[in-house]
Amino acid sequence: MLAMNYRGPYRVRAQQRPMPEIQHPEDAIVRVTRTCICGSDLHLYHGMVPDTRVGQTFGHEFVGIVEEVGPLVTNVKVGDHVLVPFNIACGKCNFCKQGLYGNCHESNPMATAVGGIFGYSHTAGGFDGGQAEYVRVPYANVGPTVIPADMDPDDAVMLTDVVPTGYQAAEMGGIKEGDTVVIFGAGPIGIMAARCAWFFGPSRVIVIDHIDYRLEFAKNYAKCEVYNFKSLEDPVVFLKKTTDWYGADVCIDCVGCEAEGNTLQTLTGRVGLLQAGAGTALQWAINSVKKGGIVSIVGVYGPPFNLIPIGNVLNKGITIRANQASVKRLLPRLIEHVQSGRLKPSELITHRIPLEEVADAYNIFSSKLDNCIKTVLIPSSK
Amino acid sequence: MENQITDYKSIPGWGMDADPDNEPTYPMKNYTGDDHNRINYERSVQQPVTVEILKSNERPTVSAVFGTSVPPSGLSGAIRRWAFKHSEDRYRHWLPLILADRINVYEGIIDDIKKGHFPNILAERGFKATLKHNPKKIIRQVITGVVAVMVIKSMFKSNK
Ligand SMILES: NC(=O)c1ccc[n+]([C@@H]2O[C@H](COP(=O)([O-])OP(=O)(O)OC[C@H]3O[C@@H](n4cnc5c(N)ncnc54)[C@H](O)[C@@H]3O)[C@@H](O)[C@H]2O)c1
Ligand SMILES: [Zn+2]
Ligand SMILES: [Zn+2]
Fold first, then answer.
1. Are residues A282 and A139 in the same domain?
2. Which of A274, A304, A322 is the last residue of a domain?
């Protein structure tokens, strides 16, 4: 079967590899019909995540048809068209049982700080991902969810990560009616967080990025205010000023470890790798939120650590809330939002590219070419 | 563990001000109290270990399922094995892993060539997309390259 294959930083290709097999009685094999490239994949693609081994297949956002099930699988059957949450979760450990499906203790032997994620380095469990014609899906009784008959598969594939992550980013912000919410990052996650923030009743939603076409997209899709930080002398002062010199009620980091905008952070984090990427967006979030405010983090940072102004977190009494999105927990509510037409996540998809051209697809998304927001890869066996 | 106090409930005021609703992780977490049962939950059956799995030393056993994508091998594999002797808290866990990742890239190229396939690195970097959507970048890179070569050449000449 054809699958994406990682060869090193900035180098990927599509190549043949053996079909995945059932390795555990709760496994299923899924024939992928659509799969996305995510901002998280860029951290792998850029060589930022330790233990990313040459030869792995990436891809944690996919939908497809169940081809084969292990003897203990009862919740899905061969032929079902399913969407598969990006977290691999057992449903039985004390973390899963409390709804923390992004923190499962039984899906990743290689690190205790992160649960298993499809196609996301060996630090997240060493699973091959869904940017392939077929993929092994462990714990098939827990994650895979049958796509409702009236749902567009393009919307469904966005429910595997982008929508739940954007929604949880807003949810963790503890947004109250009338709040001002600032979102750093106008990638798919930031755009979705801005759109979902409105579900919680704020009076202002502000998105910050430095790429104009993305800000324009965010403004139209999420009906929010947008600002290009390159045209602001100091984003923190700007945000103080625009909140009557008070600070935002909630700041959300939808950028993660490849942030731009601060030379010291960039040099130590992205060039020298002395810290796990650049913490610029998080630094801005902490410094622009009000005292006693909430900072919500969904932007991904790798191990081992980052330079962030923790003293200000203390002195300002800030609450930090962060996690990998718990996709399964949020799906019932989000499926409702999509089915009712309130949310149309497929509108974020700007590119549809055959799996064969995966190298070009990664380059387009990574280099922000051709006004790319979100790319879907289509395996030809579909 | 030998220092653990077992009769903590007899400490004056123990638990008096506990507020179960003060759960800052809610709604992400639906607190059940099971955290105190630690890893004693009903576990799925164990996936058989058929390839070498490097396990974090912060857990007692491998998880019930795991990926078998690329088992460690070669020099990078040896470095990874060493890295996994150290906890996720240590630089000496993560930095060697990044070193191994970089070495692994060369192992990948050698492996390709051994299989009779010389990797088309330009294609793997998505050159076609750059050519189509950002040809200026290529022109810039070519000019920078030519200028660099000329500067180096002239430095060699003036050294003679
Ligand atoms: N927690 C989760 O469950 C989860 C899930 C999916 C993605 N993520 C993470 O969310 C982040 C965003 O994902 P994405 O797909 O939108 O990625 P993306 O790369 O498309 O978007 C990131 C955006 O941030 C912008 N940016 C860079 N520096 C900035 C700064 N200092 N301030 C404001 N904006 C800045 C970039 O220009 C870009 O538009 C990534 O780190 C990704 O790994 C987390
Ligand atoms: Zn993703
Ligand atoms: Zn679990």
1. no
2. A322
Smallest Cβ–Cβ distance between B124 and the set A12, A92, A370 belongs to A12
Question: Residues A12, A120: one domain?
Answer: yes
Q: Where in chain B are the domains?
A: 8-119, 121-160
Q: Which of A57, A92, A109 sits opposite B62 (nearest CB)?
A: A109
For residue A280, the enclosing domain spans 165-322
A292-341 pLDDT, tens digit per residue, is 999 999 999 988 899 999 999 999 999 999 999 999 999 999 999 999 99
Cα of A333 to nearest chain B Cα, Å: 13
Using the atom order of ligand 1, give the atom closest to the CA of residue A281.
31
Q: How far is the CA of A149 from the centre of ligand 1 (A)?
A: 32
For residue range A206-258, list pLDDT tens digits in order. Answer: 999 999 999 999 999 999 999 999 999 999 999 999 999 999 999 999 999 99
Within this chain, do residues A307 and A209 fall inside the same structural domain, yes or no? yes
Confidence of residue A381 (pLDDT cuts 50, 70, 90): low
Whether this model's pTM surpasses 0.90: yes
**What's the burial of A344, exposed, middle or buried (CB within 10 Å: 0-12/13-18/19+)?**
middle
CA-closest residue to ligand 1 atom 28: A259
**Min distance B142 CA to chain A CA atoms (Å):** 18
Q: What is the 3-state secondary structure (H, E, C) of A298-331?
A: CCCCCCCCCCCCHHHHHHHCCEEEECCCCHHHHH
Q: What was the ipTM of the complex prediction?
A: 0.92
CB proximity under 8 Å: B 52-81 to A: 53-56, 58-59, 61-70, 72, 76, 80
B124 touches chain A (CB under 8 A): yes
pLDDT digits (tens, 9 = 90+) for A107-127: 999 999 999 999 999 999 999
Nearest Cβ partner for B28 among A88, A127, A172 = A172
Q: Are residues A169 and A156 in the same domain?
A: no
CB interface of A with B, residues 33-72, below 8 Å:
47, 50-57, 72
- Residue list, ligand 1 pocket, CB within 6 Å: A 38-40, 42-43, 161, 165, 184-190, 208-211, 214, 229, 254-256, 259-261, 280-281, 298-300, 324-325
Task: Tell me the per-residue pLDDT of B76-121, one tens digit each, with 9 for 90 and over.
Answer: 999 999 999 999 999 999 999 999 999 999 999 999 999 999 999 9
Pair (A100, A179) in one structural domain? no
Contacts made by residues A246-249, CB under 8 angstroms, sequence distance 24+: A246/A290, A247/A288, A247/A289, A247/A290, A247/A291, A247/A293, A248/A180, A248/A181, A248/A182, A248/A206, A248/A288, A248/A289, A248/A290, A248/A293, A249/A175, A249/A176, A249/A179, A249/A180, A249/A181, A249/A202, A249/A289, A249/A290, A249/A293, A249/A294
Same domain, residue pair A278 and A192: yes
Final residue of a domain: which of A304, A322, A340? A322
Angle at which helix A188-197 crosses helix A212-222, to 10 degrees, equals: 30
CATH number for the domain harbouring residue A241: 3.40.50.720
A-B Cβ pairs (cutoff 8 Å, strict): 216
The CATH number that applies at residue A41 is 3.90.180.10
**How many distinct structural domains can be found in chain A?**
2
CA of A38 to the centre of ligand 1 (A): 9
